[in-house]
Amino acid sequence: MSRTKSGAIAPDATTAHDESDAASSVLRRHAEEQFAEELEALARSDAKPRPPRWKLSPLAVSTYLLGGTLDDGFKVSPKYIGNRRLMEVAVATLATDRALLLLGVPGTAKSWVSEHLAAAIAGDSTMLVQGTAGTGEEAIRYGWNYALLLAEGPTDKALVPSPVMRAMKEGKIARVEELTRIPAEVQDTLITILSEKTLPVPELNSEVQCAKGFNMIATANNRDKGVNELSSALKRRFNTVVLPTPETADEEVEIVRTRVESLGRALAFPAEPPGLEEIRRVVTIFRELRDGQTADGKTKVKPPSGTMSTAEAISVVNQGLALAAHFGDGVMRPADMASGLVGAVVKDPVQDRVVWLEYLETVVKERDGWKDLYRACREVV
């Protein structure tokens, strides 16, 4: 450490290096840290009006999500590849007093979009509640430090704010993941927050009011519909945006490629990035099994019980890279992909195995240039 002329202590090069090492040792950085350079460049060039406490204007937020080139030539990478209007509607919703519900099948980037929206709007994506069957009211409202509660009774010092309460106080975006996994009686604690913009604290005879800039993004997937169905009162507090599966094979290939490259850098795989042709084969298999027919529409195939989502395709390619890196020569080949494909498709060892074997024999075996993949998959099924 060194001192400036004013006597303040400034970090020296060693401290800065240590902080850099600490950041690089994190497996997965928050979006606002990973893409800090892009967010700063957007903020510098953003001359549009911004809603209260927003770091960027709605137009700049959509540019951050969808990618583009700024006036100074700086390139912003796309975080979401798909329908532009959907993202514009999502951003516009958060500029109003209505909360946003991102709905879709598993693996359609709901959590990814939620995180990046919060990072671009509030500069903080960490105000997160992960919904599960065991999520209690305190995860959404507040809890108590029981040692202080017993010693001093209910006081401000003993109160433990939830991420939602913190977002309300600071005027930031709160994120609630897998909303339909949360028990219905806990879900309904959101109604007062979203309608009255306050959170009563009866134990202290007080309340927390939402600061300007507060809003909420929730996610839910279609596969969980009916597990804990949202009440009509709660549904009315959300504007719902449905995120579809990628419209074209090219879109899905690009999504898988960019995410695999990003994850490969984070995991420091000592392997070559997979070629587009290998990724396209994985994506083609997933799309055909998901759609129930081959890409040319000539052959019907039975869909498996799993979701066959883009997220699963990314996992298959990543697993193949790991096998190639640590047990091969660093180049991903069909044998490296085969076990991942079987694991993604065969969730039910009886029903799905029949579906997969039939697909291998009627589609993969007969497709030009796919014999190597067919043999690799037959060896592990």
Major beta sheet summary? 5 strands, parallel
**Biggest sheet, spatial arrangement of strands:** 6-9-12-5-13
Class of secondary structure makeup: alpha/beta
* Quaternary organisation: single chain
Could you say which overall geometry the principal axes of the C-alpha atoms support?
globular
Radius of gyration: 24 Å
Can you identify the CATH superfamily of the largest domain?
A: P-loop containing nucleotide triphosphate hydrolases
- Number of individual domains: 2
Helix content: 40-55%
Strand content: 5-15%
The count of helical stretches stands at 18
Mean pLDDT: 90
CATH fold naming of the largest domain: Rossmann fold
CATH class of the largest domain: Alpha Beta
Count of beta strands: 13
Task: State the CATH architecture of the largest domain.
Answer: 3-Layer(aba) Sandwich
Distance between the termini: 59 Å
The residue ranges in which pLDDT falls below 50 over 5 or more consecutive positions are: 1-10, 13-17
Structure description:
- This protein is 48% helix and 13% strand.
- Helix 4 runs antiparallel to helix 5 (84-94), helix 13 (249-267) packs across helix 14 (276-291) and helix 14 packs antiparallel against helix 15.
- The longest helix has 19 residues, at 249-267.
- The chain is α/β, with parallel strands linked by helices and 381 residues long.
- The protein has two domains: 25-242, 3-Layer(aba) Sandwich (Rossmann fold); 249-380.
- It is globular and about 70 Å long.
- It has helices at 13-24, 31-34, 36-45, 58-66, 84-94, 110-122, 137-140, 146-152, 163-170, 184-187, 190-196, 232-235, 249-267, 276-291, 310-327, 334-345, 351-364, 371-380; strands at residues 2-3, 9-10, 68-69, 75-76, 99-104, 128-130, 142-144, 159-161, 173-177, 198-201, 206-209, 215-221, 238-242.
- It is built from 18 helices and 13 strands.
- Strands 6-9-12-5-13 form a five-stranded parallel beta sheet. It has a two-stranded antiparallel ribbon with strand order 1-2. Strands 3-4 form a two-stranded antiparallel ribbon.
- The model is unreliable at 1-10 and 13-17 (pLDDT under 50).
- It starts with a strand and ends with a helix.
